[in-house]
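F.,

This is the one I mentioned.
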């Protein structure tokens, strides 16, 4: 075989090999020409959520950690909660809720009756808590002058918005209109004794002036008040 023929065959073989390599590079094996990396493949990949981005799930609050309204619960600061006891009477400044104190009675109070110059024909009842616990003056005083068989009514417009609660040493008040200032009252008489009945069923017998007091059918009391001025406003 001549050298020229050998070179020709080698050239042909090399050409075929290069063509095969080119087809392999441009053909994906399925008869489709590979155009290179796709747009999707070339786009920057979206980073997966990191652990610090989402963080661990919120830890449930420990039992009693935020419950300060239950008896004995632990507050957020870690201090022991109170047992939920409420002090003071309903509507009083010392407490609230539905808790009520024991009613004031003659055994733990001192009651006085004082004649006043203004308004005319009035006396002031003063009840002072001499006990060691709060007590409530409920409603109005039921008073009986002399041998009267009935107790006078209360002026409804004097009804306070809250029960009057007396702490130890504190006083409550009620005003008593004895008789009409213009003399229009009827069935008048002079009384020298007075008994004051409390809502608890007890009573007190405060002293009246030695000359007694004149009462007629205009006799009226106020509800118990926390202030002296309110008691004498009627």
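My design for it:
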């Amino acid at each position: 075989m001549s050298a020229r023929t050998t070179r020709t065959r080698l050239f042909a073989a090399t050409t075929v090999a290069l063509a095969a390599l080119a087809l392999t590079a441009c053909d994906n094996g399925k008869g489709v020409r590979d155009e290179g990396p796709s747009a999707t493949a070339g786009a920057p990949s979206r980073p997966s959520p990191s652990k610090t981005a989402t963080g661990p799930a919120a830890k449930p609050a420990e039992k009693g950690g935020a419950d300060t309204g239950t008896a004995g619960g632990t507050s957020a600061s870690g201090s022991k909660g109170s047992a939920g006891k409420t002090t003071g009477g309903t509507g009083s400044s010392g407490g609230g809720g539905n808790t009520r104190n024991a009613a004031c009675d003659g055994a733990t109070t001192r009651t006085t009756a004082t004649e006043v110059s203004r308004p005319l024909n009035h006396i002031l009842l003063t009840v002072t808590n001499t006990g060691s616990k709060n007590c409530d003056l409920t409603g109005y005083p039921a008073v009986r002058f002399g041998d009267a068989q009935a107790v006078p009514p209360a002026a409804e417009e004097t009804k306070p918005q809250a029960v009057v609660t007396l702490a130890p040493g504190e006083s409550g008040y009620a005003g008593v209109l004895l008789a009409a200032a213009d003399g229009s009252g009827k069935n008048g008489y002079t009384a020298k004794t007075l008994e004051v009945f409390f809502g608890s069923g007890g009573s007190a017998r405060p002293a009246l002036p030695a000359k007694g007091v004149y009462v007629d059918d205009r006799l009226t009391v106020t509800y118990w008040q926390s202030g002296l001025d309110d008691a004498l406003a009627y």
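Residues 11 and 17 are 10 Å apart (CA to CA).

Talk soon.
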